[in-house]
Specification:
86 residues, alpha+beta, 4-stranded antiparallel sheet, 3 helices, 24% helix, globular, binds zinc ion
Length: 86
C-alpha cells in the first residue's frame, strides 16, 4: 500500500462526503472533496474547522491529484465522462 489517503472527519458542505487527506501536494497538507475539489489546508479545515474553500482545487487538477495519490477513488474514474468546459 503506497496510497496515503485517509479520510478526515470533515465533510464537503455541498456533497456531504468526507474530505480526503492529501499529504503535501503543495507546501502543506491539504484536504479536498473528491467530488468537487472543495477543501483547504489540513490544519485550517480539520484542526481549526474553518478556511474551507469551495473550488479549492480545480476539477481537472483534482483528478490528476487523486490519480497521483492512489487509485482508491474509483468513483472519480467513472466521472471522467462529465462534460467540462475549459
Ligand atoms: Zn464536494
Amino acid at each position: 500500500m503506497t496510497a496515503e489517503i485517509s479520510e478526515s472527519s470533515v465533510r464537503c458542505p455541498i456533497h456531504g462526503v468526507e474530505l480526503i487527506y492529501i499529504p503535501k501536494p503543495i507546501a502543506e497538507d491539504i484536504v479536498v472533496c473528491p467530488e468537487c475539489g472543495a477543501g483547504g489546508s489540513y490544519e485550517e479545515v480539520v484542526e481549526n474547522r474553518r478556511g474551507l474553500i469551495i473550488r479549492f482545487i480545480p476539477q481537472r487538477a483534482l483528478k490528476e491529484l487523486l490519480k497521483q495519490v492512489g487509485s482508491a477513488n474509483s468513483l472519480i474514474a467513472s466521472n471522467t465522462s462529465a462534460a467540462s468546459t475549459v
